[in-house]
Design a protein that fits this description.
binds adenosine monophosphate; alpha/beta; six-stranded parallel β-sheet; Pantoate--beta-alanine Ligase, Chain: A,domain 2
C-alpha cells in the first residue's frame, strides 16, 4: 500500500500506470476505522482493480463547538488495517493541502442540506460536498463507496453527482452494527459505559419503526411517537430529531411511501451525537 500525504504524491501514484489496474474504487473516511468502513473497502476491492481510501478529518464539516478537537484518531492502526485489506493507495492529506491559504470555493447542494442533521449542524454538508468533490476530482474514481449510516450525506452526494454530471457511480452499502444493534461509529469510543447502554434505545426505536411499517403502519406520526417513547425512556439521551421523510427531497411526509421513505433519528448522549436510520428505497444518482 502506498501512503500519500500530499496532492502531488497522490497524482504521481495515480499517474504511474499499473497493469490491469484500470478501474478505481474510492472510499472516503475520517479514519478511526471500524468494520463499517472495512465493509466499504471490501466492496471496493471486489468491484474495482484499484482501491483508494482517504483518511481526512475535514475541519470544514465541523461547526464551532463541535467535536473536531476530540474526534478519535489512530492513523497507524488505520493504515495497518487497510494494508491487511489489500488497499492500494491511502491518501492522508494535511489541512494545508486541502485548504491552502486563500481557499474560496464551496459546493452547496441547496434544499437538502438544511434538513435533518443540517438543521443542527449548519454548514456541515457544504463542508462534506466540497471535500468530496475535491477528492473526486483528484482521484477520478469509477465508483465511490458510502454508508447508509449517513443516509442524508449519501442522498446529498447522489444529488451532487447527478447535478454536476460527475462520472462516478455511487455505491451505498448497508449499516454495519455491533452485536447488540448499535450502529458502528468512530464516535462510539467517546461514550461512557452508561451512555453506550442508553444509546441502544436508538437502534431499538428504529427496529420498532421498521416492524410497524412491515406490519402496515403508514402514519408517520404513529411511527415518530413509537420511536419517541422508546428513546425518551433513557434520561441520558437528548433527542435532536426523529423524522420520517421522503427520500427524494428529505421533506417530512405524513404517510410512509414504501420505496421512498427514510426514517432517521439523531440523539445526543452527553457530548456525543449519534445518528441511525432505516431506509425503504434506494439512494441512487
Ligand atoms: P466517517 O469516517 O464516519 O466519515 O465514515 C466514512 C464512511 O463510512 C461514510 O460513508 C459512512 O457512512 C460509512 N460508515 C460509517 N459508519 C458505518 C457503518 N456502521 N456501517 C456502514 N458504513 C458506515
Amino acid at each position: 500500500m502506498k501512503t500519500c500525504r500530499t496532492i502531488a504524491s497522490l497524482r504521481r501514484a495515480l499517474a504511474a500506470p499499473i497493469p490491469g489496474k484500470g478501474r478505481v474504487g474510492f472510499v472516503p473516511t475520517m479514519g478511526y476505522l471500524h468494520e463499517g468502513h472495512l465493509s466499504l473497502v471490501r466492496a471496493s476491492r471486489r468491484e474495482n482493480d484499484l482501491t483508494v481510501v482517504s483518511i481526512y478529518v475535514n475541519p470544514s464539516q465541523f461547526g464551532p463547538g463541535e467535536d473536531l478537537g476530540r474526534y478519535p484518531r489512530d492513523p497507524r492502526h488505520d493504515a495497518s488495517q487497510l494494508r491487511r485489506e489489500g488497499v492500494d493507495i491511502l491518501f492522508m492529506p494535511a489541512d494545508a493541502e486541502m485548504y491552502p491559504p486563500g481557499f474560496r470555493t464551496w459546493v452547496d447542494v441547496t434544499g437538502l442540506d438544511g434538513k435533518l442533521c443540517g438543521s443542527s449542524r449548519p454548514g456541515h454538508f457544504r463542508g462534506v460536498t466540497t471535500v468530496v468533490l475535491k477528492l473526486f476530482m483528484l482521484l477520478k474514481p469509477q465508483r465511490a463507496y458510502f454508508g447508509q449510516k449517513d443516509a442524508q450525506q449519501a442522498r446529498i452526494i447522489a444529488q451532487m453527482i447527478r447535478d454536476l454530471n460527475l462520472p462516478v457511480r455511487l455505491r451505498v452499502l448497508p449499516i454495519v452494527r455491533d452485536a447488540d444493534g448499535l450502529a458502528l461509529s468512530s464516535r462510539n469510543v467517546l461514550l461512557s459505559v452508561e451512555e453506550r447502554r442508553a444509546a441502544l434505545a436508538l437502534p431499538k426505536a428504529l427496529r420498532r419503526a421498521r416492524a410497524l411499517i412491515e406490519a402496515g403502519e403508514r402514519d408517520s406520526r404513529a411511527l415518530r411517537a413509537a420511536m419517541m417513547a422508546e428513546i425518551s425512556r433513557q434520561p441520558l439521551l437528548a433527542i435532536d430529531y426523529i423524522a420520517v421523510v421522503r427520500l427524494e427531497d428529505l421533506e417530512e411526509t405524513a404517510r410512509v411511501e414504501p420505496g421512498n421513505t427514510l426514517v432517521a433519528a439523531a440523539v445526543r448522549a452527553g457530548r456525543t451525537r449519534l445518528i441511525d436510520n432505516t431506509l425503504s428505497g434506494e439512494i441512487e444518482c
